[in-house]
Amino acid sequence: MKRGASLFNVVAVAFGLAFLYLPIAILVIYSFNASRLVTVWGGWSLAWYRELLHNTALQQAAWISVRVAALSATVATVLGTLAAIALTRLGSFRGRMLFSGMVYAPLVMPEVITGLSLLLLFVAISIDRGFWTVVIAHTTLTVCFVTVIVQSRLVDFDRSLEEAAMDLGCPPFRTFLTVTLPLIAPAIAAGWMLAFSLSLDDLVIASFTTGPGATTLPIRIYSEVRLGVKPEVNAVCTIMIAVVAVSTIASSLIAKRGAARYQRAALGAQV
Amino acid sequence: MEPTQRGNARAIVLLPYLWLVAFFLVPFLIVLKISLSQTALAQPPYVPVFDISGGWAGLIEFVAGLSIDSFLLLFSDTIYLLSYLKSLQVACISTIILLAIGYPFAYGIARSPRGVQPLLVMAVVLPFWTSFLIRVYAWINILQRDGLLNDVLMRLHIIDAPITWLSSDSAIYIGMVYSYLPFMVLPLYATLQKMDESLLEAAADLGCPRWKSFWLVTVPLSMRGAAAGALLCFIPIIGEFVIPDLLGGSETLMIGQTLWTEFFSNRDWPVASAIAVTLLVLLLVPILFYERLQQSSLEGGR
Predict the structure, then answer these.
(1) What pTM was estimated for this model as a whole?
(2) Which of A31, A178, B257, B275 could be disulfide-bonded to A235 (CB atoms 3.0-4.6 Å)?
(3) Which residue, among A233, A219, A221, has the nearest Cα to A115 in the 3D structure?
(4) Do A83 and B204 touch (CB under 8 A)?
């Protein structure tokens, strides 16, 4: 079959992309709307961004979210990388079935269940809910994503490099540090970024596990938009989209091999 | 393996293992236990509370205090049954729509010039990185009564009066399909792109028309991707909370919403836990099926 542009293919892709991007584009455009109403275009304006400067509640929530995301992503990356190494390099060990089951299950577990169960745990061992419980919850949620990304990299890289190092007398731990780690570093970085953005995004699990003084940005946004569209929220969302877009594009330019590959794997695509 | 290596190996697996047992497995056991408890006006709001200091007698008393009342309630009150059915309905229909939109999309990407493909994949992934909440919220701008969709439709004289899009099932479907589209497209693209094209050439050489070779060759070979995509959408949609809560109406709640209300509004922890347990049982088959797909692809090294 000839590869290339049949009309049907072009239309299908164009339609798909339009569907994915149009709502986001509209949101961004309307964050610059001077009018409060969606249907009325009152001219370009930065009014809602100025409003944000005075909205300390949103700013605090954003700061909490960023700290939670950075902490939980870092812990999840360490745990997830260890889990990936265990699953690809250790062969069979006792409890492996249970382990791999626990690693993959959170990928598809409904968030309401994860949230509820963690909350009940915190209550059962009487830990006060707040910043740290959200960090623990988000770490648990994101470990599996890091594992899958790192694992897919470990599976398809050339093991003869490791073997060569060990044949030349390099001890296993050193081999890991000097040979394996640099090779899987892009996947680890991609895993951290994914964990970070998942944590930044999560509403349901955070709502269950949070406590006084630890209102994250999604919880704040959610409570504002339940009652309809708020132009300030359009502005916050636009800023978040800009940050995500810039960092994603930058990181994919740095890691030439493309985050898309790891992403695909993260979505269970290497079937 | 040498003994020291074996020791190292255990150290590698220990940390994530303990973490997952403590924060994933044990919490589930607690949910199971509380689903067998009864509501009480206490802190925590359920009885019996297991007290280790009670010793053997305490354990017996604890077990005697367990009940299946919450589960009986779930099966006797139609609210819960309707919730489950609603979730199933939304998940089934959304997954079918996702397949219908996602397949041509993925197919189009897989058939586009090689150089463009990574760019298109990137374009599909990018929205996935932006906040889920934001993407759902974006649709409120469009679907609300004085929103853009009604505005455009009225200007084009397709409709005369504004239609209520928001707070309806159609809004839920739009939100689901929109949010989960990348999960459907990427696995499909991965299998379609790996497909051996000489098979299609062989079919064409033997005089098979294109639509027929698509149906007889391409579709069967992409079944794995379709299954992975469908499961990746179906399972989380069943328990979805944010989309139906922000876009849907209030007549019939999806099961995720029902759990949320039981917990946060009614403060009935045992019933919320019982809902979680039944939901998990409902999802067990698709989840196990999905894990099989995952493991065979990752650990088998293909």
Answers:
(1) 0.83
(2) A31
(3) A219
(4) no
